[in-house]
User: Fold this.
Amino acid sequence: MTESRPKSRGFSLVEIAIVLAILGFVLTIGLQATGAYLSQERRKVSLARVAGLDVALANYVAVQGRLPCPADGSLATGVALAGVEARTAATGVCTAMDTGVVPWVTLGLTETEALDGWNTRISYRTITAVAVPAALGFTSNRSLDATGCDPGATVERNPPPPAVQPPVPREACVAGCTLANLAFVANCTSPLNFVTGRGLTVRDAVAGTLLMDPAASTGAAYVLISHGENRGRGYDRAGTLQAGTPANDVLEAPNANNQALPAAFIDAPFNDSDGAARFDDIVSRPTLMTLLVKAGLAPRAH
Assistant:
């Protein structure tokens, strides 16, 4: 008598379809979680590198008494002058401000240290010596040395030769008081005069609240901008301006590279949704006085 064996049963098409659908759902969730994690990690890298650049710029000012000019972001890695400040030495005028990125060579850094987490060059903008008046610029020689501004007017920063001593009028604490063409006056005014009317304007929206206001002595000495995950209007290492995916919207447009300085830069709350509210830029915007203090060149009593 022949024993009967249970028949093996395969999966039906419906069952296979259900399994595939479940696997697809799990994979989608996993990819989304991985993508969010990578985005967060790249943002952390960007924040750390921007903070490192703040330190490097303060150290440069401490030695040179001025800010460096930006490098030309449209120059590819390896090309002559890539990463070098674009500056006319005799005048202190920056010649590539509209395409400005961090001048990593001039700061003694590697290019990687001047890239954000998405391998986009970090944009860098400041006030050059072509500002009106020229003394309000930050890139001319010793234009950020305010140590001679003495609110007590007890000593002179540049005492006269022995043949004409004593005394001479004290140095004024006014914008540009430490430039080569300074004029001595009889009294010393508030150190705030060194910063009033100088710097970049920053808002929290295109027509929003002023965050940095030169007229209120809170102008930004410079701005550093990581263009975020969409990389919108930032330069890559090949010197190519990125269109942005998704493209920049209204909030990020003023921070775009390859354009003249805007009336105001934007530093809005992080928002990675698509549309007019999108803002994934990372912005550093120290006040002029903050930079002077870090560099050890702030006004001081003698």
Notes: The mean pLDDT is 82. The first helix runs from residue 13 to 64. The chain has one domain: 26-295. The chain is about 20% helix and 10% strand.
